[in-house]
Amino acid sequence: MDAIKGFIDLFADPRLFFTISVVALVLIVWKREAWASNSWGWGMMVFLAIFFAFGLTDENFNKIITKPDNVPIVALIFLLVFFTWYSVREGVRNDQRIAAGKEPIEKEEEDRVWTWPDLVYTELIAMVVCMVILIVWSIGLEAPIEQPANNANTPNPSKAPWYFLGLQEMLVYYDPWLAGVVLPSLIIVGLMAIPYVDKNPKGNGYYTFVERKAEIVIFLFGFIILWNSLIVLGTFLRGPNWNFFGPFEYWDVHKLEALTSVQLSDYIWVRGLGMALPENPLVRESFGILLTLVYVFVLPVALAKKGLSRYYEKLGPTRFYVTVTLFLAMLSLPVKMLLRWLFNLKYVVSIPEYFFNI
Amino acid sequence: MADKRAVGHAYNIDFLNVVFAASSLFVLFSTVWMVWDDYDREWKNYQRQFSSLEMEVTRASLVAEQANVNQAQVAEVTAQRDAAAQQVGASQAQVDDLEGQLAEVERQLFIATQAFNFTKAEYDVDRYAFEVEREEAHGAGEDHEVAGEEDVTALYERWVAEGLEVERLEAERGEIRNQIGAITAQVDNLTAELGGLVGETERLQGLVDDLEPSLINDYLLNAPLLDFMAPSLTVRQTITPNVVDDVNFTRVAKMDRCQTCHLAIDREGYEDYPQPFRTHPNLDLYVGSASPHSLESTGCTVCHEGMGQTINFVQAAHSPSSDEQMAEWEEKYDWEEQHYWDLPMLPNGMAEASCRKCHQGEVFVPGAEKLNVAYGMYERAGCYACHNTAGFADLRKPGPDLTRVASKLDEDWVANWIRDPRAVKPSTWMPKVWYNSNNSAEDEGFPVRNEVEIDAVVAYLFANSEDHDFAVSAPPRGDAANGQQIVESVGCLACHITGDEGREAAGPRRTFGQPLQALGSKTTYEWIFDWVRDPKHYSSETYMPDMRLTDAEVADVATYLEGLTGRAGTPATATYQQADVDAVLLDYMRAIVPFEEAQSTIAGMSAQEKQHDLGRRAIGRYGCYSCHQITGFEDVQPIGVELTEEGSKLLPQFDFAFVHDIPHTKRDWINQKLVDPRIYDTNRILQPLEKLRMPNFGFSADEARLLTTAVLSFQRDVQPKEAQRPRGAQEDALVEGRNLVRRRNCVACHEIEADGGDYVALVEEPSLAPPMLTPQGAKVKPDWMYAFFRGPITIRPWLEVRMPTFGLDDQHWNGVIDYFAAVSGSIGEFRTHEEVPSNETIQTGEELFDLLRCQQCHVLDTIPEDQELSNLAPDLRMARERLQPDWIVDWLVNPLGIQPGTRMPTFWTEYPGSFYPQFEQDGVAQIESIRDYLLTFRGGPSPMSGN
User: Do residues B848 and B918 make contact, with C-beta atoms less than 8 angstroms apart?
Assistant: First the structure.
């Protein structure tokens, strides 16, 4: 039993957790026709149920998942898996129909139903069910109220509301001005921009995958990997001092993490060029600044010329640059994660003199 | 399924019906569950239980009260009343007639009163309307006339007239009532008498009737879903505006809901019932409405801690007092430590840790018995010397002065002593620095390291010891038996023990001075002689007073003490080489200077220099200088963490390291630290200099618990000034004085304010003990008292125990004098007695003096013969100089009231009347005449003449 727990703890390391999530997403997209089967759908649900039931028997995991704040997140995992599976299944079915020259399922259905009973009745039922859930919830789970706030004794771990835990995970890799201000703003701006940059008329009103491959893959990566899996990671796997803990590990406040990451400037000047760091911070960080400028300004242009020229032609310059800039901004998180994990890189640009780090 | 889908239907309606029915059932069940969940709350169940308990207790007291009622008398009075009622029956027609009239008058009065009130209301409205109108008109111009003033005036007059009518009718009603009363007077009187006899039983009967379950009050109003209106089961709370909760960013009035379950906490009669229904054990001091800490003003959680707002057992942060209780609670309430409230309840017996929140700066809080002993121990153990603590600042160093140690001790003895002090003297407060739980392990090389350090420390002390100039060189020996008799009688044993009783058995007051056990094995005869003769000659800082012994007596005492030989201590357990000394010294130095530099410095030192340097560093590391005066450490800061706010420190700031077998609470951490100060190094990998260094005092479980209470009492100031005792000259003098008489151990001999006087246990009977000093401020004149403190004289020659000469400065003595005055409520008052008594008064005084045979017990120059020692009383010739004349009067009136247990008889039991014929049996005049007669005496012993 302990071996199984140890094994699971091992796989929950943020590096492995992230890699496995990405691999799983790739597999889902690649082998979607197999995954869309009912047996996979049921299998996933049963697997999750067994996993959590097994987890309940462990003292530490039990504490985390039965905490009143976290119970809804357990439900969220089930819902997320279910709806991802469901949408892929519907998409696969329609794709097969379209390939066979038929209309999507949604087109064959009635496009009008009766207000009574179909609409109002189902709304009533939904309301009643919601009420049952809320009543049972309020009896069963106590309001997660803690002690009076104390600036001399802040909660440890100090966690954001569950829906922001993805952002908080970003703070591990980026400074607050980026992780807390620039990137969240770009997320909102990006979501607002979608209707204007997306010219593809297909897939309106019905599920499909083949007709919107790139859009769906980007969405799944952003929503499931960068947002939801980081929420799960933040909720269940980050403990005191924001240290990483496996699901069955005791949350030891005294657990230490060796802080050994280095700056890009250290790599280039000290190790690469074999000289001391220049005094002037701008000179010291010139390589990092250059790299960042290339990533933000040169890379989109280069991609327009080569690699994504098909999209450039399809979208036109404005839409293309907006899309690519947003996409690169999204990718900056996994890129930084990889750099941290592979090269122990702390910052690309590090100018603590101006509180400016990238 | 498809066939059921008619045109325009998205769902199968039959199926939806089933879903709807099922979800409706669920909503019904969950609603019922919700209502039940609310109905079945913990506190509501306690209140239901309590109402039957209350019924039981009230019934029991009704039965007890009924047994007290004199039934014969009740029957007699009832019979009398019935007879009287029959007489009234004869004039029943007249009574009926009067009652008819009364009813009519009442009716008229009702109408008249209503008219009167209505007119007043109309008048107020009209008057105000007129006032406003006139004000506005005048604003427009002075000459604007406003009509309507006559109407207002008329209304006023009507109202007055109607008032007169009301008065008339009231008078008429009174008259008729009197007439009826005249007829029924006897019946009324007898009914009142009967009420006096059975009033209490009737009251209790009424209470029982009220408590009887009733359909409306108990069932309907508390019924599920109806209990939102006016339930009798309610949350009960006390809000205390002057006692606050610190919620970190602001302070809010405490809101204690403890009474919601602890329903009888302020009611007598529930002492023997189980919690939560038990009465508070000390209603006179706490909770009771007449107590100084009433429920309304103080609440509960300011003393007991815990979360007052909650009405849930576990969330209230109840703390178990024992492991068994914890197991019981876990079983019964799913109890667990609360993480969301920083201040869990203090377990039974530790609530006194909260006294200091409001009783700031008080080392002695009257009534807080445990805390007072705890503070005594805190001082005796010298905790404050290493750990700065507010309220314990500026005290002398608790250990002996070591600047002249070579004249007192030899090196072997000191090394054996510090290796394990309690092996030499089981009752010492000196802690063990080496060979503790984190520095004994042989595989870590500790025995060698310890021996190196011990020898180095001893070498440093002796190398830096100054010479002592003995007052008498080669003093003569004396008689040990006589010395023992002196030690056991003059009062030495108030502060010292000579036997092997443990520290706990002796208590903080009798371990105030060094235990004398094994003294002969420790030091030399010369030193003991020098010390007993005049302690301040060796150590000017010592608290040891001068017993005013003659040199011959000193020789006897010193000879006796020299004979108290005993254990010599623990010898070294390891041997070491010079290389070991070098290694340890290098370890110490590398912590401060670079390795190369440390090495070269050591290389340049002689063996002796190395040892002394290491000794200095070890003394610095272990903080020996915090308690002892040591040359070279005059201005070094103490080593311990400050404890002034330790009780407010939050749990996460305590490092439990790998100690898992104690509960995760602050009090358990502190307790464990006291029991084994090095325990939190267990299972840690640490370099020798990284290890914990608090020495081990060998505290017993009880001692550790008391000290934990003391440490928990040191808290951040949270309570506002309004919650504290109002300070003034008297209060300040009390607080300062209480501290002073404890810090100088006066209370070891004298009882003051119902505390102390432990010496009484060492004498054959109480009257041979040092006197009780509570009434001293009212009794003795301050100038005499001052002179006495400076140069004590013998007041009671038959006592063997004697008042020593303390050699305090004026500030201290004035503090004591002010304190006594404050205890008597006479601070700051100068009192004179200028009446010149007539010869007749004095003569009568003398008559009474002889009549009452005062001289039978009181000394008057000569000690009365054939009198038991315990009956003897002070020389009355001192009265004029020593006693406050007013106090003499108070004393004669009621000696037992001033000094319980005194042998002085109460002669005027009928005061102000008297048995004696003088002054026409006027007790006041008689007592004053005796007082005046006493004040004519001259020539008694006096401390004033010598100073």
Answer: yes
CA nearest to B376, candidates B674, B853, B1, B739: B739
Rounded to 10 degrees, the C-alpha dihedral B114/B116/B121/B126 comes to: 140
Residue located via tokens 């809804």: A72
> pLDDT by residue (tens digit) across B801-849?
999 999 899 999 999 999 999 998 887 767 777 777 788 888 888 988 8
Contact B307, B255 (CB under 8 A): no
Look at the alpha carbons of A330, A334, A335, A337 in this order and tell me if their dihedral is positive or negative: positive
Q: Is the distance from CB of B741 to CB of B491 less than 8 angstroms?
A: no
Closest CA–CA distance from residue A128 to any residue of chain B (Å)? 6
- In this prediction, residue B4 carries a pLDDT of 46
Residue B794 CB neighbour total at 10 angstroms: 12
Query: Looking at chain B from residue 194 to 233, which residues have their Cβ under 8 Å from any Cβ of chain A?
Result: none
Position of tokens 């122990």? A344
Closest to B119 (Cα-Cα) out of B149, B151, B90:
B151
Cβ neighbourhood burial of A3 (10 Å; 0-12, 13-18, 19+): exposed
Could you tell me if B784 and B882 are in contact, meaning their C-beta atoms sit under 8 angstroms apart? Answer: yes
Chain B residues closer than 8 Å to A116 by CB = none
Among B27, B340, B342, beta carbon nearest to A128:
B27
Q: Would you list the DSSP string of A284-338?
A: HTHHHHHHHHIIIIIHHHHHHHTTSHHHHHHH-HHHHHHHHHHHHHHHHHHHHHH
Q: How far is B7 from chain A (nearest CA, A)?
A: 8
pLDDT digits (tens, 9 = 90+) for A262-306: 999 999 999 999 999 999 999 999 999 999 999 999 999 999 998
Residue B429, SS3 per DSSP: coil
Beta-strand pair B238-246/B293-294: unpaired
| Sign of the dihedral through C-alpha B805, B806, B812, B817 | negative
Contacts (Cβ under 8 Å, ≥6 apart) of B408: B468, B523, B524, B527, B538
* Chain B residues lying within 8 Å of A138, measured CB to CB: 34
Distance from CA of B20 to the nearest CA of A (A): 6
Mutate to test the interface with A, among B12, B248, B307 (most CBs of A within 10 A): B248
**Interface check B248 vs A, CB under 8 A:** yes
Q: Do A114 and B20 touch (CB under 8 A)?
A: no
Q: Count interface pairs A-B at CB distance under 8 A.
A: 74
CB contacts, 8 Å: B34 with chain A: 135, 138-139
- Whether B14 and chain A come into contact, CB under 8 Å, resolves to no
Q: Which residue in B446, B492, B548 sits closest to B745, CA to CA?
A: B492
The pLDDT, as a whole number, for residue B497 is 92
Please spell the DSSP secondary structure of B566-629, one letter per residue. Answer: ----PPPS----HHHHHHHHHHHHHTTS-HHHHHHHHHTS-HHHHHHHHHHHHHHHHTHHHHS-
Residues (pLDDT < 70) of chain B are 1-7, 142, 829, 946-947
Q: Dihedral sign, CA of B89, B92, B98, B100? A: positive
- Confidence (pLDDT) at B725: 82
Q: What is the DSSP string of B862-873?
A: BPPTT--GGG-B
Query: Looking at the complex, does the CB of residue B117 fall below 8 Å from at least one CB of chain A?
Result: no
Q: Do A139 and B19 touch (CB under 8 A)?
A: no
Tell me if B9 and A118 make a contact (CB, 8 A cut-off): yes
**A327 Cα to chain B: minimum distance (Å):** 40
Is A150 close to B342, i.e. CB distance below 8 A? yes
In this predicted structure, what is the pLDDT of residue B3?
45
Q: Cβ B34–A128 below 8 Å, yes or no?
A: no
Tokens of B762: 């060492």
- Amino acid in position B621: R
Interface touch A139/B8, C-beta < 8 Å: no
